[in-house]
Design brief:
The chain has about 100 residues and is mostly helical. It is about 75% helix and about 0% strand. It has a domain of about 60 residues. The protein is built from four helices and no strands. Helix 2 runs antiparallel to helix 3. It starts with 17 loop residues before the first helix and ends with a helix.
Length: about 100
Amino acid sequence: MHCDDETEEVVERSGHGIFITTLFLILVAEFGDKTQIAVAGLAGSMAPLPVWIGATAALIMVSALGIWAGRTVLQRLSLSWLHRIGGGIFLLFALMAVWRALT
């Protein structure tokens, strides 16, 4: 079976806007992250408002950088090649973990 990634069309379901979806994805991904724990610690020992503003600005900038980098990569590589490269990297990580476990 041949899967042609360039001809697939993504249909957005109503009620699932990209903004809300992205907001919840980032919320779930960042919940309990060590940077969020560090922000909570800073807010406990410093003025909370500047800490919150700095942490929010940092998250926005990192997210924007990720979006830009993702679009740039997808303009140069097809999605199937990106999947192959990602799979190869994870296989390399698995081999490194096995090697480290055995030595």
